[in-house]
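Anyone able to model this chain together with glutamic acid?
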Amino acid sequence: MAGPVPNARSRRIEESATLAITARAAAMKRRGLDVVSLGAGEPDFPTPGPIAAAGIRAIEQGKTRYTAAAGLPELRTAGADWLRATFGLDHGPAEVMVCAGAKAALHMALDATVEPGDRVLILAPYWVSYPALVTMADGVPVVVPPVPERGFVHDADTIAAAARQHGARGLILNYPNNPSGAVPTRAQLQAIVDAARAHDLWLLSDEIYGSLLYDGAEHVSPATLPGGRERTMVVSGFTKSHTMTGWRTSFLAAPQAVIDACSRIQSQVLGNPCTISQEAMLEACRTPLPAEHAARMQAFGERRAFLLEALAGVPGLALEPPRGAFYALVDARELGRRRGLDDVAMAEQLLERHLLAVVPGSAFAIPGFLRLSYAVSMPELQQAVTRLRDFAEAR
Ligand code: PMP
Ligand code: GLU
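re: yes, here you go
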């Protein structure tokens, strides 16, 4: 008798490149190697005290049972209020649901809206999981090539042309962008929304880095722009801003029919997001922590400034200032040319010979680049730059 075998769809799904590199770096560390990992983007700060305490309180008070599939009603209300206060979204509690992480929210949204064979536009460089998530929803990812010469913000006409050429039904947006740190201006984003409207595209807007901004950059959600609300599904939450990475929480805000569909799916595949985590998220919604946020942004800002200055002195590397998130997408094309290596081989040598984990740009459809996460301590970042310089200057 034959045992179960992975089906064709699952065989098309590759492991998340960011998580794979991070796991490899962790395994090397366990073997006693002094690896510095700028792989996965996970802030080095702890979850803020009041939020962690709310989780502990939830366990102590026995709030450990199932909740409604779409999340605790009071959390959906608090989430709608938080999204309004923080990003100006105008969604009621019935248009907001709780998901188990931004990944799960993206998955739910795609699962509920993509018809088999639908073309979905993904703007490169893109966060590694989008193509796989579209494929899992039986859609077809269509990658729009990167535009480093435009600060990584695509022109609306380019998006419109891709929509026409491929007969696309949807477009995934991610600003502030992982990996480039790009943040469009309001006018650029409005032009993209207008193009989506003209070509009847839905938008899936991953705004998980929406409050991590530098140099006066402004985060605008397409759902707040004219013509945007009715076609946009917004993914947001506290994963990155509040280091709630392991709690697995997020919000999905979208037209109610989509939220109802996602909620039905969630009721079948998950039941509900972790109750304890929802209680912690409720605290995060109700109690803003401006001093804590300012301290984090100051630390990220210092690390970003350090990288910008330090990398300017490394031959063959170039870095444009990221405007949001906590990644440096380093242009290593010149170094690669000089050394006869592509980005994957460079990342490989950096890890094996210099004990520095970075993610090759190819994982984000931007070959020749390397992504460095600066959500690590300053001493680690200093070590990382020394190792990068050693690599760049090695014969
Ligand atoms: N979207 C982007 C752009 C990300 O970088 C990440 C990183 N984890 C996620 C979604 C997933 O976040 P979560 O941990 O909340 O699932
Ligand atoms: N989003 C982070 C990153 O891009 C974490 C890893 C992941 O979830 O893939 O590194």
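Residues 290-312 form the longest helix (23 residues).
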